[in-house]
Amino acid sequence: MWYSECKFLWQCHTVLLFVLWEGMNCQEQTEPSPGYKIEAPAGVRVQRGLCVRIPCSFTVGPGFNLTRDAIGIWYKGYNGGKVAASTDSSRFPDTTNGRFIFTGKVSAGDCSFSISDAQPGDADRYQFRLEDRDGLYITYVGIKPSVSVTEPDISPTEGLIAGEEVTLTCTAPTNCPGLSPTFTWEGSVNTERTQNHTLRHQDGNFSYWSNITFTPSPRHHNSPLSCTVTYKHGSTSTSITLNVKCESIFHYVIIYTQN
């Protein structure tokens, strides 16, 4: 009996030592206790209005087994900051109108979460914390995924020649199921020749894009061209300035003279 109690106390002291060490802000280090590890992308990019899933898995140290009561918490910025997603809605009420969802099963070591209808204010680093029975309270510092919120992309932006037909593409990649955005082009060029496309990838993600085909002229140089992507909950747009070049045409005239 005495041995088992000592073993339990030793485990608790190990976890407490970990938490105190983390509080020293040793950012270059990973989890110092053996067995505590987190795997997640260092950063993800998501276009405004779209959604993204951040895959994540973690392990705990020897002597601990995750229970069904294990709680996962994702903090925005740092431990103790705003709770972005958790598996315990009674302790941590949703503050994102359902946009952040903890999708992983904590008892299975899955700490994945998703973001829908991404907004510029979502851009930040996120930190994972685990809480379970037997005094298991761990904040993982090895990886804190960063989320970047971007705008739609128009390409190419170079190589436009006056008089030569060109096709530009506005892209909106996403893994939002059932999302069908609409594209709208605006500018001084002819915006009638457009074609929208959808591609489903093997991993379940989708790519949406729209092509616009036109023939630029010198008067289109330095004029704006915008692409607006409209979703169920709103829209986002991006704009470029057309850089149209004129190719010089040289006419060679050979004059023969007779002496």
Automatic annotation (TrEMBL):
Q: Classify the main location.
A: membrane
Q: Which residues form the Ig-like domain?
A: 145-243
Q: Does the keyword Electron transport apply?
A: no
Show the SUPFAM superfamilies listed in the entry.
Immunoglobulin
Q: Which residues cross the membrane?
A: none
Q: Does the keyword Cytoplasm apply?
A: no
For membrane topology, the record states: Single-pass membrane protein
Range of residues in the leader sequence: 1-26
Positions the record marks as coiled coil are: none
Localization of this protein: Membrane
Q: Which GO terms describe its cellular component?
A: membrane
Please report which protein family the annotation says this sequence is part of: Belongs to the immunoglobulin superfamily. SIGLEC (sialic acid binding Ig-like lectin) family.
Protein name per the record: Ig-like domain-containing protein
Q: Name the source organism.
A: Xenopus tropicalis (Western clawed frog)
